[in-house]
Amino acid sequence: MSETAKKHKAEAPEKLGFAVFVCSSSRFKKWQKRGKIDDPSGDLIVKLLEGAGHGVALRGVLPDDGAVIHQGVLKALGTEEVDAIIACGGTGVGARDVTIEAVKPLLEKELPGFGELFRRLSYDEIGSAASMSRALAGVAKGKAVFVLPGSPQAVRLCVERLILPEASHIVKHTRE
Question: CATH fold of 17-174, please?
Answer without folding.
Answer: Molybdenum Cofactor Biosythetic Enzyme; Chain A (3.40.980)
